[in-house]
Amino acid sequence: MATLFQGLPSSTAFSSSNKFNHVPAPTSFSERKSSIVTVRSDARWSPVLNYATHKPQRLITNAVATKADSSLASTSSKPGHELLLFEALREGLEEEMERDPCVCVMGEDVGHYGGSYKVTKGLATKFGDLRVLDTPIAENSFTGMGIGAAMTGLRPIIEGMNMGFLLLAFNQISNNCGMLHYTSGGQFKIPVVIRGPGGVGRQLGAEHSQRLESYFQSIPGIQMVACSTPYNAKGLMKAAIRSENPVILFEHVLLYNLKDRIPDEEYVLSLEEAEMVRPGEHVTILTYSRMRYHVMQAAKTLVNKGYDPEVIDIRSLKPFDLHTIGKSVKKTHRVLIVEECMRTGGIGASLTAAITENFNDDLDAPIVCLSSQDVPTPYAGTLEEWTVVQPAQIVTAVEQLCQ
Amino acid sequence: MWISKTIFNHFKSRLNFTPNYAPLSLLSPRRFASTIAQNPSTFNSIHDANQVIDFPGGTVKFIPEMRFISESSPQRIPCYRVLDDDGQPLANNFVQVSEEVAVRMYSNMVTLQIMDTIFYEAQRQGRISFYATTIGEEAINIASAAALTRDDVIFPQYREPGPLLWRGFTLQEIAHQCFSNKYDNGKGRQMPIHYGSNKHNYFTVASTVATQVPHAVGAAYSLKMDKKDACSITYFGDGGSSEGDFHAALNFAAVMEAPVIFLCRNNGWAISTPTSDQFRSDGVVVKGQAYGVRSIRVDGNDALAIYNAVQAAREMAISEERPVLIEALTYRVGHHSTSDDSTKYRPANEIEWWRLARDPVARFRKWIERNGWWNDMAESELRNSLRQQLLHSIQVAENIEKPPIEDIFNDVYDVPPSNLREQEQWVKDTIKKHPLDYPENISA
Predict the structure, then answer these.
(1) How many domains does chain A fold into?
(2) What is the per-residue burial (b if ≥16 Cβ within 10 Å, else e) of A345-357?
(3) Which ipTM value was assigned to this complex?
(4) Distance between CA atoms of residues B99 and B110, nearest Å
(5) What residue stretches are annotated with the Dehydrogenase E1 component domain (chain B) (predicted)?
(6) Counting one residue from A and one from B, how many pairs have CB atoms under 8 Å apart?
(7) pTM of the predicted model, to two decimals?
(8) Is the same domain home to B127 and B197?
């Protein structure tokens, strides 16, 4: 895994997520022409094909992108193709399975059923049921199986039907997946991807609304990323599969049907990089996964009230992209973290500690962290809504922070 | 299987229930077969229709009597053995082992025995921090390894250094690992006896019990996909068979038709827990059939029986693509580890009896001596030479530096990230500032 941004030319003007742009920062987003590059795990960065407009620059106006009017830049003259987030995951998965015969998928109902969220639909017919393996219901054991297969040369993607079920696999993930590369002295590597939907859905009950990123974040040896758009879902899926380290890819139950346009050309994103969603001046809002959309909805209100929030989707939950975050903190001097994890021991808690440790002198105000309460997610719809951070709360928090 | 309303409603149009494939039968190799019940009109006669029904999973016969399957058989599953306690063959139907292989097996068993004795003593003298012996289980260790090839991948628990010795791991390398010095393969990161060597296809021991059992199934799946002429083998104890991972792994291996050998060392004890407190089944061998896995019970102290059984199992596993469970009955003569004193929970004379009267090494020795392949002189030469080698290896390993500070932080990931590099620098700075507070034998 690369040390962040080593070796980049110091003369480059960094602005927003287009870090590898060699032209001075242009005035408007839609005019930006750029080449996309990726930071590879060996710290080399290589260009990916040019395409006309760079997706992540445009402003996301809707909280959760709906089908037709998903973005301002979604014109018919734009290249690329439209698809839903789960289809983007599948596309990434399919491309990697075609590219490398060692890539295989295992999980419950991933085979002919296509996965409970259809991420693996059609893959079993295409690649055979040995490469898309239906497992019996024993998460600890099929995770263990994946680890054993990885140690002998395969690159498995282990799907948890719901992230919460992977609590049963905690032993294998912590004691073996994260550790065996280390304890074997580097002799055996474990290039697995563990993925699945998590987060609070719509009345799925407490057991199916877990946020496992907070439980897994301490495990040494693993990387964690969270996708939030079809574009980064595909890119992160491909990056995770190609990584030599075990990667946990967190998807969100409510984001699978997000529609967006993604490039036709192949692209791979960096696992350790955060995404600049909306540059701003007044406050840095750090978020990931579904909360990104709540933040963007709040951003609309905030802009109308005269604030200029900078929104960063941190994407990489372990390790944090402190470079992007630090740059932002140095610019705005105020930080608001919006997450779905519970208050105690969540990603926000770690992020608060990391920012305070590293950028304390740049802060004008204490960091505010909006998280869910330390309660199991209730089933009743109204109650459930109130355990999740809502845009109104985000607006209030920013107003208070910017006083 | 959990499907939420929302998901189901969204996706039900995408579910494809078109029955264009054959009904599921137990013998069908197809995995995509539907579970739609067979049309009753395909039965031969009304008489037949009354006696069988086809629930999902296949047809079963009806009986009007309510019969419970007993929790135990009147007879325990018999145990396969080739040599009697005196090293005499019971019959002539076993795979013959050549003189070369037999002598090599015996030498390795003696090596294991002496290695254990000397390293145990070393721990008692405070030279290493921890050790666990394999005393009493030398036959299982060496004979099983002898029946495999170098391409078969091994997933050990922690009481199986024998296969490593068989495959050429040296006593010096063993010593390096036990002393956690800089020549250890594992770079000093694991406790003593947690060996691992990818060169020898022996996967690093993890302290967690039975987690290696599903790993072996995964590896077998990988070998099957690559169509290799190899299987995977995993070892675990009677206690390990209680873990959830054991059950799920056997189930998986059967469903996936994976070429894996499950070798259970039923040595009677899980630290202080005897098997009567571990399970109430007839040992571990009967569990195989419950999962659809072919199984056999073998005398674990009979090197030839183990050799024959593992060789046959390997053949079945690879050519028939099936898992095989071998339960090797034996006795754990040593303590669980150097942190245990087993006389606290079992009589010392019982331990002594198993150590002397039922020693697998002595029993095999009688057989090779009777064949004219071994004698007292060879024995004393071997034992003396091994003792010298071991003492020398220990002395060498003891004086070698420990691994460098960097090895605390390397290999957590493929390339160390910035936060780990920072932490490494912090440790180095602290050591520089307070050198007297830190050990000296760390290479800078």
Answers:
(1) 2
(2) ebbbbbbbebbee
(3) 0.76
(4) 16
(5) 108-405
(6) 202
(7) 0.80
(8) yes
